[in-house]
Amino acid sequence: MDGAFSCSKAERFFEEIKGKKIAFCGIGVTNTPLIKKFLQKGADVTVCDRSTRETIGEVIDEMEASGAKISLGNNYLKDLDVDIIFRAPGIRFHLPEFEEYRKKGVVVTSEMEVFFELCPCKIFAVTGSDGKTTTTTLISEMLKAQGYKVHLGGNIGRALLPIIEDVNADDFAVVELSSFQLISMRRSPDIAVVTNVAPNHLDIHKDMAEYVDSKKNIFLHQNAFSRTVLNLDNFITASFRDEIRGKLSMFSRKGEVHNGADCDENGDIFYVRNGEKEFIMHRDNIRLFGDHNVENYLAAIAATEGYVENENIVKVAKDFGGVEHRIEFVREFDGVKYYNDSIATNPTRTIAGLNAFSQKIIIIAGGYDKQIPFEPLAPKIIEKVKVLILMGVTAKMLEKAVRECPGFDETELKILHASDMEDAVRLAVDNASEGDIVSLSPACSSFDLYKNFEVRGNHYKEIVNSL
Question: 3-state class of 194 per DSSP?
């Protein structure tokens, strides 16, 4: 299948949607470029969002000037006269309004669902509770180092459907997929990676079972020629093994795999084919620090086997400095090193961040309540934290979990409360001594105070850089 023929499928799609009444529900990273694309292609577009015009800003005026109808406020989904609805990932799939529209014959879909239908090239996709953005980026960097043209997108912050006509059959698409995207997907990628699964987003999903089931859509619709990469060290992902239809590859930092990638106790990393080990590199070649990043590399190595030569894997390991907001070094001030780990939006991510440091540190934690228990985090805080600075809605819950945990000693662990980020950084500065480490590692989402974890991390960095 050559590029011209492949693109014609996308061209036919856009020809068919001319004049169709299409609603885009949710204005954000995914739908904003889509809305502009569909307006250019002659669709009859309605833009829907719960927010007000003032909150959204000038982008809504631009869309309206381009011909889009606007439906805002609490009734944004009411009485839509449309043929197709594109749901933004952050909007619940099982909303009663969507169910009613489906009964009326309205198509309810999403950007990533349509991209998978139209994409002419091989797709690598990554999901997981933690590590998916770094792993997705690593796969992309390895493929690019090998000389391939790569289209990186999905939950990582870029919509790919708007550029579908530029994707050719010999390219690669590398996408990060959240549970919100996967819950409605009925197509799976050629190469699927599940980094790990732990409780997350239980404020949105009806229960843990729905969250896990949504993750499984990344491989449930694969064919026999596909590949699935699973984490042997994570109980939930390891349990998926019997449901894999194509080639199964595992990765492990703690044990040996039969096919996939592992790391031995000496730090040597191998690719394994039918039990036969091929040395790739030592973990010291990896510029990113922390055991969790070794796991991210193992996942990426297992995913790209057969596509990327070892020398290019090693080159990426030595050169790649990490993704923003993931244990990102901000600066050293008065002998104290400050890190930004705003991506730590759940307890397991904060545990991974704490394990990356060899000394007790000062952390700033707390935020929006995703209804995830903090008790599993408490022992790690007691082990790895000297000063715990709490802020946001979950501050009291976090403190309760730590104080009630066996082994808590208030002479060893100081707990402080901050009114906002400026106050939290001030408390960190006041309680830090030369040689200390301060990390923003919230264990919670940011929605109580910030639009997203990026905005939170950037605000933290601004404050630290202004010290």
Answer: strand
